Structure formats: structure tokens, C-alpha cells
Amino acid sequence: MRGPAHRLLAFLPPQGALLEGGGRASGSAGSVVDYGGINASGRQCNAGEAPLALLPKARTVDLLFDVADVFTALLDAPPMSEALLRRALPGLIEERLLTDPAECHLVHRIAGVDGNLTRVAVGAIDRATLTEALDAAAQAELRPRRAYSALYSIPAPSGGALSVRASRGRGTVRTAEHSGFAFELGRSMPAALFLVVQQLGIKRIRAYGRDGAKLVPLAAKLRVEVVNPKRDFDAAAIASAVNLLQGRFAPAGQFGIARVAPLARDGQLKPLRVWAALGLAIYVLGLNAYRFKLEAQAHALRAAMQVAFRSAFPSEALVEPVAQAQRHLRDLRARAGQLSADDFSVLNAQLAQLLASAPVGVLAGVEYRNSALTLKFRPGAMGSAAHQGALQARASQQGLDVRFDGNGSAHIEPTSP
């Protein structure tokens, strides 16, 4: 039973034992608890006892309350919505509780449907007890995702076999899927255990827990076979547990998950998944249709440009219609005596206006290439960001674009339309 635990079960002491010892009702970070780990394969991998603050590390932690501290039952309710069921819970379990439902935190889980009735597994715990337990877990830097009765740590009766968990002088019996009781383990025969064995016709008892071996001597008096599986709990049995961390006690950040997970288990999300898949398919088809439309428009535009170029310049091979058309346009303007904005004479005249207020000798050289001027300044003349920004602002007013290189030189060309 070694290996890292993916899930850790922490068995909290019963409330009555803590009160008798003068401690807080639900203990503290220093309270010693039984624990058991479940590995990635879903099997028990370790077990022992330790203070809450010193429990082994695990990805998730479950808090298990003593059976006497949590009321659990399986009830039949008329068909109703989840909201109505939550409001009806106090009335459904009021006669079965020994305390006022207003002082309890009530939870439920839909267990199935039987004809016109809904099978509802319910749980109730004193609100102060649950709050103090979660506070103790927070002090121990634990963030439990689930909390439930310890009866869910052992299997429900089946095939004439009853499961009992014995540890630290206390026994836990699971008499049905959502019911059970606890008893003190001593030298004498527990009357409640003897009675349930007779009522259910039990032939064999599976004794879990560290004190499971102490139940073996009771086999003769109970007239049953006692089998010790040498395990602290049954990892598969907790699947049917009614989680107490619902509503206001739901783990932080799990609001949506706490409600989606039960729906996914019950298959109620299947229609939603179908519609989501259909919507995604329509969205992808729409994107592809839009892409094809844009490609068709781009192809038509390129074809129109090529037709226009061949019509204007039939004797020239088509390579890059835009650049070739711009070059021919400059040549035509030059023949007609019209100057282009990127001609040297035009740019040089604008440069003279641009540097009219600059100090004499600031310019070291000018180069004209590819319809743009490259200015080289004297060292330190235009090194500051303020001078460069002022030059760019004046150039913008004249319809020029100025870009500075890392070496301090500047490129000037007409602003793109």
C-alpha cells in the first residue's frame, strides 16, 4: 500500500468525543485524524493517523464526518424542479431529524426515478459543525473538494455480507446505500450490531479499519463469519456519497463544475453537446465560406489590375503591375512637365523648407534612392529624441514621413495616401 496519493480521505473524530475532551466541536489543525490515500488506479495506497496539518500531500482531500454527526437517508419525492426540491427538503426530512432543520446545512443528490416518484439521497449536518471543520482544514492549508459521512467509506450490504469499519475504539456500520450507524467498540457485544445482523439475515461481516481484527472474536456470538480484508476502507464505495459541500459551502472556483458534473453523470448534457457540436460545425463552415469569398474577390481584383495594365502598356511584360504602373505614371508626368511627389526636385525643395530653421552645418550628406531621401547628420546634431520628434512633426505638416535609423540617419519620403 505504497505510492503517491491522488486523493486523501481524512476521517474526522466524532463531535461528542471532542466536546468531552474539552476541545472545539470539529477540532483544529492539530486534531489527530485517521487518513487513507487513493492512488491513480483508484486503490488504497496508504493509511495511518496524523494531525490535520501534517497529513500526506495529495491532489484532492475529502473530509469524512462520523456517522453520528451526519444525517443521511433515501427519500421519495414527487416530480419537481431542482429549485423546488431544495426548498422542499426541510419539510421532507423534518420529522426524521433530531434537531431543527433551520440549524442544519441540507444537501441532496438525485438517485433515480421510481415510477412517478423521484429517489432523492439527502444529507444534513449541523451548520456550525461543518463550518468549524472547514475552518480547521483551512488552518491546516487543506482545501477539501468533498465532505460526506464516513458510512460511505465501506460498501453497502450485498449477498448476505455486512461491512463494518472499526478504528480508534469506534465502529461504523453501513446498513443500506444511504444509512448506517456507529457504536463503541468494547469487550461486550454491541447490541445494535447484533440486532442488524439478525434483521438483515447477515452471514458474513467484512471488517475494515485498523481495529478490524477486534471484530473477529465476536463471530461466534454473532453467528456469522468475520472476514478481515486488511484494508482501512473501500475506495469504490465512496462513489455514491452525498457531498456536503454544496450551495454556500461549495469549494471556491467550483461553482460551475459542481453543477455541471452531476448533469454530465446523469446524461442531461447530451442534448447540449449535440447542439454545441452543430453550432461549431456551422461556425467552421461559415468561416470557410467567408474565406472563399475573400479569395474570389482578391482573384478578381488581381485579374482586373492585370487587364488594366495590359490595356495601357501592351508591349511590356507583366511582372508587378502596381510598381510598373507607378513607374510609367512618373515617366508620363515627367514628359508632361508634371512633377511627382517623390521626385528628387520636389523632395529636395521640401527638405530645404524642413531644415530652414535648423542650425547651419547640421547636415553632413544627402542621398536620393528609390524615390526617397536619406539624410546623414553631423555627430550629435539629431541624437536626442526631442530633436527627432520636432523634425518628424514639421515633416508631417508637409506631407512627409521621416524614419530615423539607429545610426542617426533619417529617411524621408512622401506620406502614403
Write a structural description.
The protein has 417 residues and is an alpha+beta fold. Among the domains are: 1-71 and 80-100 and 125-151 and 239-266, no CATH class; 269-338, no CATH class; 344-414, Alpha-Beta Complex (Hypothetical Protein Ta0175, Chain: A, domain 2), CATH 3.90.1070. It has ten helices and 17 strands. The protein has a five-stranded mixed beta sheet, with no helix packed on it. A hairpin with a 2-residue loop joins strand 10 (170-176) and strand 11. The longest helix has 43 residues, at 270-312.
The helix-and-strand class reads alpha+beta
Q: Please report the number of helical segments.
A: 10
Subunit organisation of the chains: single chain
Could you spell the SSE succession in H and E letters? EHEEEEHEEHEEEEHEHEHHHHEEHEE
The overall strand count is 17
The 3D shape can be described as elongated
Strand neighbour order, sheet with most strands? 3-2-1-4-8
Rg from alpha-carbon coordinates: 41 Å
Instruction: Give the DSSP E fraction (strand runs of 2 or more residues).
Output: 25-35%
Largest sheet: 5 strands, mixed
Helix content: 25-40%
How would you state the average pLDDT, rounded? 84
Name a few traits of the molecule.
417 residues, alpha+beta, Hypothetical Protein Ta0175, Chain: A, domain 2, five-stranded mixed beta sheet, 10 helices, 33% helix, elongated
Quick overview:
Among the domains are: 1-71 and 80-100 and 125-151 and 239-266, no CATH class; 269-338, no CATH class; 344-414, Hypothetical Protein Ta0175, Chain: A, domain 2 (Alpha-Beta Complex), CATH 3.90.1070.
